Amino acid sequence: NLRLWSSRCTLYGVSEGDIVAYAETSCAPNKAMLSEHGWVYLTNDSSDYMQYLFGGQAWTESEANNAVTTLTDRHNTLADRGILYRKFVIPEKAAVYPEYLPKVFEPLPIPRGRPAQVAEDATVPGYSYVADILKDAKSRGLVYFKGDSHTSWFGAYFVYNHIIESLNAGLHPNQRKPPIPLSKLTPSMVG
What residues contact residue 68 under an 8 Å CB cut-off, 6+ apart? Predict the structure, then answer.
């Protein structure tokens, strides 16, 4: 049972030391932190995402090679059987909206060594990390919810459009289907 708002703390500027560890410790045991801008971000999650995002953790060369080899082998094995394989990775909100993180993170650069970016930079066939697509799309509207870690319906549309384009690129022209235009979609509440 997760209670996001069970406690509140203020993160003060830290000029040295591990800022990510400081934020995680300050927010523990909670799994979310609220920034001064009113945006909620995941922290203390099971994947150590913030540590990877800011370079506190990184894949070893062996881990990176293993991941790239596994994804490439999977793609090639399925292609040999006539199966189109694609892997799409949706970034955490902090990779797309670092500007709304708590101010304590401002001095930290975001290196390219996080796992999803490593696989993207290795040009694994069929692999797509959609961070750049969502960064470009955010000039058109909010692509993530401020109070949640998931893409908004608007952000999900850009991901959907990219997936359809990627799938179509691997299909015979008579098998391709255009994405549903945004103007034809309407958000609705279910339940």
Answer: 118, 119, 122, 124
